[in-house]
Specification:
A hairpin with a 2-residue loop joins strand 3 and strand 4. About 20% of the residues lie in helices and about 35% in strands. It starts with a helix and ends in a 5-residue tail after the last helix.
Length: about 190
């Protein structure tokens, strides 16, 4: 339900921007025949290398063995809460697509996942490879949805002040072990 509200708000905002910005392109207005310049909103996400990701956020994420299509990106933030650049790793593994994120937040309650579901399950787990850090596992399930399932794990490293998340959506995640993928993500800090 919340996902639908967020989508509706995004559509309304997009229409408002379109109306204010004149989505018709460079059409003259009020008799102006000199033409106008179109303005584009900058994309806050940019592609980076794994090496750059470690420079931007001294994180412990690594590409899991046997993962395919690994792609790193960064989202620069202009935030007042002292959070740093968010680094993101997208990859495919065992017929699922994953998004892993890391960001220096200095906040154990920060949610950097970008997942906005009304979670139907929540469990605490101990992440062995991550120095026994406690992670929180969430699951959303809806048989009537085209996605079916959404799984999320979030964790926080108090020593480094870095928040992490790993998420996946799929038609069927029944019996799936997201914790195992989280453990595969661990790579010693570089």
């Amino acid at each position: 339900m919340r996902k639908k509200k967020i989508f509706a708000a995004a559509v309304i905002l997009g229409l408002a921007v379109c109306m204010l910005g004149g989505c018709g392109g460079n059409q003259p207005q009020n008799g102006d025949t000199s033409g106008g310049e179109s303005v584009q909103i900058a994309n806050p996400m940019r592609d980076i290398t794994e090496g750059e990701s470690h420079k931007l956020c001294n994180h412990s994420l690594g590409v899991p063995e046997n993962a395919k299509n690994a792609a790193w990106s960064a989202i620069e933030t202009d935030s007042s809460d002292n959070s740093g650049t968010l680094v993101q790793l997208n990859f495919d593994l065992d017929n699922n697509s994953y998004t892993a994120r890391a960001q220096k937040t200095d906040n154990p309650d920060a949610d950097i996942s970008g997942m906005y579901y009304e979670w139907s399950a929540k469990n605490i787990m101990s992440l062995t490879n991550w120095k026994q850090i406690k992670g929180t596992y969430y699951r959303w399930f809806d048989k009537s949805s085209s996605e079916g399932y959404a799984d999320l794990c979030t964790w926080y490293d108090a020593e480094t002040g870095i928040s992490y998340s790993l998420s996946v959506t799929a038609d069927d995640l029944d019996g799936f072990d997201l914790q195992a993928i989280v453990e595969y993500l661990y790579a010693p800090e570089k």
